[in-house]
Design a protein that fits this description.
Blueprint (H helix, E strand, L loop, with lengths): L12 H15 L15 E22 L12 E24 L3 E3 L1 E8 L17 E8 L1 E6 L13 E15 L14 H15 L8 E2 L1
Parallel strand pairs: 4-8
Antiparallel strand pairs: 1-2, 1-5, 1-6, 2-7, 3-6, 4-5
Length: 215
């Protein structure tokens, strides 16, 4: 068994990569190419790894006013909203006595695909909204890799385990019937609407971090 290579904290990314390569040559194991250098901690120890993912679909619903007693009247739409069905998953684990070259945090990247508003194009101010229906999904999982946290007695403080949950949430409430050119469903309103979904995901899986998500 090769002796561990002592590693001193450094601000020089090249130095860390050299150490990782030396370890790979001794053990025959290649350092992970998926880890992007975002910190200066490196070496052999107990490391915490978190990953998260979310996907779902949505559709516009209309809320009708009650009819009055007048003969021949029909319900009218009071407001509209998006009904969302989503699936969230997180994984948290601690790897004991392993080597990592750096602390990393990679954003979870998401894509939102909306449809139902054919007149809305990328060149209009109304682009970027959810439109009448669609889906969202992760194109790159969010990850955090760092040294595990411990108390004074050396006991691990980081969570371990997986969480997978389906959930429903209503978002994007707007007055009257939905209209593609109303101005209530645009690129400017998307962060708030998506934020409601992510906050609900965090309630379902407590280690899910909305701040780690970009879209």
């Amino acid at each position: 068994m090769p002796e561990p290579i002592p590693v001193a904290p450094t601000d020089d990314a090249d130095q860390i990569n050299v150490v990782a390569q030396q370890l790979a040559e001794q053990t025959g194991l290649l350092p992970s190419a998926a880890l992007s250098l975002t910190g200066t901690v490196s070496g052999i120890g107990d490391w915490y790894i978190h990953t998260q993912d979310i996907e779902g679909m949505y559709e516009t619903r209309q809320w009708n006013k009650d009819c009055d007693a007048t003969v021949g009247t029909t319900p009218s739409v009071e407001f509209n909203y998006k009904q969302v069905r989503a699936y969230v998953t997180t994984s948290d684990k601690v790897l004991r006595n392993v080597y990592f070259s750096s602390v990393t945090q990679e954003a979870q990247v998401m894509e939102i695909l909306g449809s139902g508003c054919s007149s809305v194009t990328g060149s209009t101010t109304l682009s970027g909204g959810f439109q009448t229906k669609g889906r969202f999904f992760t194109t790159r999982m969010g990850t955090i890799t760092r040294p595990a946290r411990k108390n004074a007695a050396g006991a691990l403080l980081d969570p371990s385990g997986t969480c997978t949950e389906w959930f429903n949430v209503d978002i994007a409430h707007a007055p009257d019937a939905h209209s593609c050119d109303s101005g209530y469903d645009t690129f400017k309103t998307r962060p708030n609407d998506m934020g409601q979904i992510l906050q609900e995901a965090a309630k379902q899986c407590p280690t899910f971090d909305p701040a780690l998500v970009t879209y």
